[in-house]
Amino acid sequence: MSDALFEALLRLGDNTLVLGHRVSEWCGKAPVLEEDIALANTALDLIGQTQMWLGYAAEVEGAGRTADDLAMLRDVWDFRNILMVERPNMDFGHTMMRQFLFDAYHRAALRGLSISTDPRVAEIAAKAVKEATYHLERSAETVIALGDGTQVSHDKMQAALDLLWPYVGEMFESDAVDAQISDAGIAPDPATLRGGWDTYVQGVMAEATLSIPEDSFAHRGGRTGARHTEHLGHMLTQMQWLQRAYPDATW
Amino acid sequence: MVRPDLQRIWGWLDEVPDPEIPVISVVDLGIIRDVTWDGDTLEVAITPTYSGCPATSIINLDVETALRDRGIGKIRLKKQLSPPWTTDWLTAKGAAKLEAYGISPPSPAGGPSRCPRCQSANVEKVSQFGSTPCKAHWRCLSCLEPFDYFKCI
């Protein structure tokens, strides 16, 4: 069980770590100051959640590693985040569409995790779900405002949705690890979250006057580590550079 | 060593300001969950407001320093996540002090009821986020001043 739990915790912590880092890349160059601050604060919440998930993962592993070791000293193939969060930010519309699709999934997953049979998982999720709910309020509002905005903003949001849709399926993929973890009551099986997510997202997209693509093809390989996109390695060269160049540096 | 009683210790902690909003204390903020003696070690349970809030480590340092200055030698700080902090943990005294300072206190309605400067109810949201993780950015349409609103979670 501890192997499966370690794997499940990496999936949670790597999602928030990689998305948190991506979102932080906007710091200092977002379209307007308020959005810059909002993105930086969202990133901060995600990194805070990462410390809790990876901190617990390191304890469960029991190999003397810390949350920082897991974040800064693993290579691409050891990351367990979904592919969607490692995609480059592209434009602001793409960033906010990705945030919305993830936030809606994240809130549903954390709600399920907050009643986990594992008390540590439950308390971390109970803390994080409040932040995820707040993020979702903003990302949903932004997707609606831009989708149902000008012709230019509408077209950009539709293009973002078309581009991101093939990355949605991986969020709800289940494998042997998920089966073991959900049987033990530690986390909900991701596949069970799909129905509620679809209903919610369809409502927001209708309000945003955006069309959900019909093709249900899904890229996969991130949460198993089998096949990440080429983007993750490039991101890690930035994120991990300091610890790689100056091992064990602290300040 | 004489162990100061817990009520006095709570009083001392009520003099430790929040590092980012110094007008309220860490007790007003509702993040001190428990203070207990374990033998001659004082254990203080602290809960974070937002999970990534950078003030957390400064708060720990300030709490420890304040207790040490009062002569308590053995201190153990414990991070307590559950039940998670919400704005309901903010004391009424803290909410009043926030408003006097110009920060609109959290309201269950999801937004400030009035401008903390001119009391006008004619206010609008500028951004859901603000200068610290715990605040959002609003504006008064009567006196035209921007102000911080303590987010309600």
Can you summarize this structure?
Chain A is an all-alpha fold and 251 residues long.
CATH class of the largest domain in chain B: Alpha Beta
Share of residues in strands of chain A: under 5%
Number of strands of chain A: 0
CATH homology-level superfamily of chain A: Ferritin, core subunit, four-helix bundle
Q: Assign the CATH class of chain A.
A: Mainly Alpha
Q: What is the CATH superfamily of the largest domain in chain B? A: Fe-S cluster assembly (FSCA)
- Cα radius of gyration of chain B in angstroms: 17 Å
Description:
The complex is a heterodimer of chains A (251) and B (153). Chain A is an all-alpha fold. Chain A has a single domain, classed as Ferritin, CATH 1.20.1260.10. Chain A is globular and about 55 Å long. The model of chain A has no long low-confidence stretch (mean pLDDT 97). Chain B folds into two domains: 80 residues, Fe-S cluster assembly (FSCA) (GMP Synthetase, Chain A, domain 3, 2-Layer Sandwich), CATH 3.30.300.130; 63 residues, no CATH class. Chain B has four helices and seven strands; from the N terminus they run H-H-E-E-H-E-H-E-E-E-E. In chain B, a hairpin with a 7-residue loop joins strand 5 and strand 6. The longest helix of chain B has 15 residues. Chain B is elongated, with a radius of gyration of 17 Å. Chains A and B meet through helix 2 and helix 6 of A and loops of B.
Q: What descriptive keywords fit this protein?
A:
heterodimer, A: 251 residues, mainly alpha, Ferritin, 11 helices, B: 153 residues, GMP Synthetase, Chain A, domain 3, 2 domains, 4-stranded mixed β-sheet, 3-stranded mixed β-sheet
